[in-house]
User: What shape does this take?
Amino acid sequence: MKKQDSCQASRFNAIALKRFKRRLKSKLKSKQRRRGQSRSNLKNKTDHVKAKIFGGKGYVISAPRYISIYEVNDNVNTYVATMKFVEDIRQNYGKRKCIFDFSATECFTAASLVVIYATIEEAYNNGDERGVVLLPKSGRIVKDMIALSNLRMLIEGKNITYTLSGDEFLPVITGHGRVHLEEIMDHIQKKIYDDNLTDKENAEQEYVYCDAVSETVHNVGAHAYPNRRDEEKKWWVLCHFDVNERQLYLAIYDSGVGIPKTVVKNPWFTPAYKKQYPIEYKELIKRSGGETNFLFVKYISEAQMVGMSMVGDVTGTKMSKHGQGSKSIIALVKETSDGKLWVFSGRGMYNAVSNEAAVVCELPETFQGTLVQWNINYHA
Assistant: This one.
């Protein structure tokens, strides 16, 4: 009798367990449906908002989830997606009423921000149509970057004035020649001033920072915009201080012809390449049958050209200061703790970290113009 009761109890337990599993599975499916509906509702709300803007006739420029140019070889094609976003802006903003949809954006890097800002400002020449911005539902950092950089005001066509009084994040600043340059360097000097250093040491540190910025801006005027008037030789600067990490993020961008188009025209390029890459140089001479800069354009990658533009004085001549214009740019990294430097131009990227060998790589999509960015630890 006990054995029969035991078997019956086991059957009841098995039935109860099956019922419990079915209920649990049903609840999970219901929860998944609700999540899917929530996401769908969020998308529908965003679509509904888009439909109301400009009477549903606005052109939507959808920002990618990650807006960044650093990840050139990642699996999600972050760099390519960012460049497509930039090109979409370049082709459409100004020509039609645009809706900049950042609702799905989770990451927005400073280097990408200055490029996008410059692209929008230059697209003003396309026409008089302006746009509106849809901010992400969450993600305060992305919202703050769009607001503090004046990006939203630029998109909406509002008048922008500069105030260089922010403790951490400065707006993107547009200049040409030395317009606004002194103000920017004064602001950097005030932020990096260290009470623990002597006046002489502070002055030397200020010189390293300001000389790098001046050299970069000088290169814009001298090389980036051939056959342009001075007021057309624009540059854009973004400066951000991370007070907690004591880091300075400084990016300077121009939309000019790019390093690969100009670097081979410099008189130092051939002897510099010969000394830096003697074996490759001999092979190039054999291929071309002569020593001309044309062979470099034909056989050397744009990534190598960008790398060569950052090489120091390897020629043993005095032409490097005004020819290469990279000594001060590199010095800002080499003379500070854990400094980092990125240079983007054409199909090439150059990346240097203090006390490490520089890396040069080919970009999957062309980068229009030139971007120089430093990450520097100050008061380190």
